[in-house]
Input
Amino acid sequence: MAATKHKLIIVESPSKGRTISKFLGKGYKVEACQGHVRDMPKSQLGVDVEKDFELKYITIRGRGDILARIRKEAKNASAIYLATDPDREGEAISWHLAQILGINPASPCRVEFHEVTKKAFQQALKNPRPIDMDLVDAQQARRVLDRLIGYKISPLLWAKIKKGLSAGRVQSVVTRMVVSREEEIEAFVPEEYWEIDAQAQSGEERVQRFRVHLSTLDGEKAQLHNASEAQAAEERIRSSAFRVTSLRTGEKRKLPAPPFTTSSLQQEAARKLSFTTAKTMQVVQQLYEGIDLEGEGTQGLVTYIRTDSVRISDEAMSALRAYIPERFGAEFLPETPNEFKGRKNAQDAHEAIRPTDVTRTPEQIKASLTRDQFNLYRLIYNRFVASQMKPALSATMTAELTADGVGLRFYGEHRCFPGFTSVYEEGTDEDQISAETTLPVLREGDEVRITDVESSQHFTQPPARYNEASLVRAMEENGIGRPSTYAQTITTIISRGYVTRERKRLYPTELGRMVTSMMEEYFTDIVDTEFTAAMETQLDEVEEGKTEWKQILREFYPPFEETLEKAEKQIEKVEVRDEPSDVPCDKCGAMMVYKMGRFGRFLACPNFPDCRNTMPIQTYIKTPCPKCGARLMEKTSRKNRRFYGCERYPECDFVSWEMPVEERCPQCGSYMVEKRGRKGEIWHLCTNETCRCKIEVQQETSEVEGDE
Output
């Protein structure tokens, strides 16, 4: 008896496959190819530059069984639909599958959908299309460029600096960005300046108090460079009788942010949830591929997650504009939809990241989500809803107070309509002090008394080190990489040992500096942001059908090969010695050295391979254990979360997720821990639940010391 024919649908991930299977009837089978199934061989270049960049593809190791299963199902299929992800990589995977299964790429075999919902998938299934060869060619061009740069420069790094190093089209320029920022910080010379604030008072019957800031001296912008200038200005303020000489009131409109792109989601999740870029993509992938919801079955909760567009579909817009007045009131809905301008060079192929159903609130499905899934879904949901709400309105007042050549200024805002901020407000990477205040009642000519004057010393600050959020933003602004590569690029430069992440900030290592220095000298274009961005633009042009993909390679390779030959002759071998430690090997007694592995730095015996002993690096904090007085160690949990425990464990079982500080609570004597706010503020908090005394800290007081 002949096997029953079915329709075969091939997706990338098993979890997405399970979700889609539940949307379909008995006449369908769903298989997952688990990403790319063919690639150029790892053991050789795989690109014949002499034959106009002819490519050699082989089955990826470990994919043989997967392909055998797909081939078996394909033999009994009446139709085959390739439903891989809707981007360059997904299109290339579909093309490779078509080659393997003997499918004509020009036939309607490709199914494209942007959210894993029953309605979206069934609609896509009704409208299959041919494989888009422009997308495939853009992926092949990108892959070949990466292969040429990586496979040609990396062996040179191995030979001249250290085995195991690598260079890459994107990773090298991003490493240089981190190195350059560190060099800016090291070269920065701080300059002293002073600011003066004063407490002002007006009114006779109803006394009003408000703070003012020194703005001008003798008609010029106030610039105080030292303590003596500040003291002289203070004395002038104290001895002067001020009046309101200018008063301006107005209304400030704060507009909502657009729905998330991949980049803005990574940045905001870092600010508000303290997620790394890799964690953000891992969690949002789960939301995209489908969550088993109580009472609903498996549902994709958000639209496609690799996008640089802020556009949303007409259908989603209509649903959202119907939902806002119902949920928040008609006064929160603007007359016409809010429009957002995407960044330059945005591909706009996909919608912004949004919930697939605006009526599915985070609270409704909280029980079906993990904590991370809930927090990220809530972030995406609230940002989407807020994007189509009215602006927040604030009444503003600017008052100029003058006397005897001294000008003081008051500026205040008072929120009078919350608008979109009742749902969501975008975070920032910089510390910001809100100007929100109660506005005094003032009139021009009013006399104002100064009751207190306070001067403060400041120094100009160097540019801040990158964190993951600000590095992603810089990559996007410079046109480096694409939404699908931001997280992987940062993960790569950290795992390679070129960059370290400490207290959420990114620092270049000596190895990163050394490799960057060599790349800057011999491969200037590869680490040049403008060159890399121009190459990304060329790949976009291939995708749009404007440029032939091999033409990019024909223009790139000859000068690159010439540069490579010069570098091989001119670069002298650099001896990189392992950094010694003061920790003896507990097996042979030799002093161990620091090494870099895939999970970060560790201690290794220098007598390898005779002695293969390794040890984790022990990191201690200065605060003694509150329970027994021994040293406290910084440790990492199985889920990569940092915590603090006593070195005498298991004899002493003290453990804390927050960093304990030496200071004891002034009210109850319990130990305190360091807490940090989203805007950079630091305070010490009592751990006694019945006390919870909180002390603000003006500067960082906690230090971590290693074994070095």
